[in-house]
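Why this split exists: single-chain examples teach little about how molecules sit against one another. For that reason, every record in the complexes split bundles all components of an assembly together and asks for one structure covering all of them. Below is a record exactly as it appears in the raw files.
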Amino acid sequence: MNEQLLLSNIRSVLIRQEETIIFALIERAQFRRNPVAYQAGALREAIGEESIVGYMLRETEKTHARMRRYLSPDEHPFYVGLPAPVLPPLRMDENPLRPNQININPNIRTTYEQEVVPYICASGDDGQYGSTAVCDVQSLQSLSRRIHYGKFVAESKYRMQPARYDAAIAAGDREALTREITDAEVETHVLERVRLKSQTYGQDTGGDATQSKIDPERVVDVYARWIIPLTKEVQVLYLLARNERQ
Amino acid sequence: MNEQLLLSNIRSVLIRQEETIIFALIERAQFRRNPVAYQAGALREAIGEESIVGYMLRETEKTHARMRRYLSPDEHPFYVGLPAPVLPPLRMDENPLRPNQININPNIRTTYEQEVVPYICASGDDGQYGSTAVCDVQSLQSLSRRIHYGKFVAESKYRMQPARYDAAIAAGDREALTREITDAEVETHVLERVRLKSQTYGQDTGGDATQSKIDPERVVDVYARWIIPLTKEVQVLYLLARNERQ
């Protein structure tokens, strides 16, 4: 099997992404919720209808698109109409995924802005919109990468046991697929590891302050309530699309 | 004294920045040295004389400048001629620093590209120039912030004991100033803490692999050889400039 599809390799990519996500959430949690940063048209004269976070995200994606970020099968942009890459395509390992158009970033962004931010940040406005937006771009990009990695997970699971999924795919049965791809033991293991990492990274090591930068249980909840379910959603969408015209 | 100048507050800012720096170095060390990414004109037709990393850094700074990042006294751009902020100025606490033009980013960038990257990355070229550039922007920004925080350190030290520095400042005696601002005990403490953090964050927690993502001693060396000396350089430059027309 393609190396990228070995479940052990996928797991180590996902494990490595945990640090990036936890770190991004810790950084964001320094600032207040700052609802103004998510308001369309808050700076209408300067940046039009885009919110501050949206503006920062789109500008970042433009630059990253030129650096061919979105040619990689594990990267998905939030915006359409991005500029063409200026870097020549990388000779990459063969893309092991089936061709697909799945991109749940609109859902990820809404979930992040409306549920995750209010959950991890103190309410109110500290005026730090620029820093907020920088952190949000980091969070959104790392969440998107993690969640869409579900495609690799699904392809890998399918290839190991196609018969397990074929009937549900043919029937378009989402619930059955969700049941089949769910591994409660692995999920528990992920949450335990995230708890441990959040406790470690969230501490003010060596500082005088002994309080945590973020409640580690909040980070665990972000995984349990949003990241894991959204990754499973990607897996199911990907398996369903596997049946469409190839 | 201004809260930003309390040595205990400065220390906790510097301690918090350690995570960001260590993390950025760990991320960068995933990739090879990729000398092409630092070559001026490597993509001449697409982005002109700028290197790939330079291009990414300048584009990022343009966006961040619009978000008024460089109005903050602890932020220093690598590029000049950046666009004006579109966000209205933040009502910030009074800037506790003396007016000064010190910006050693050219030095930080050369040091990083020519010394730090070859020290932390395996030699060779893996073609991952886009990811390399994204990591480098993160590293350079976090290093610049840490190193220029020396201004706050110097102002704080000066206000506590002006008489200790006045003669050396008047004489323009860099060596004497370097001696006076050096606290070997604090430096040892910083290095010990960085070692501990690098050991913790650099581990593949929970993964099957037991090897480190980066040799923690390399991170300690980056602090000892480059970050601490450059921070002290900023302190000395700042103290010397304290005497110039205010």
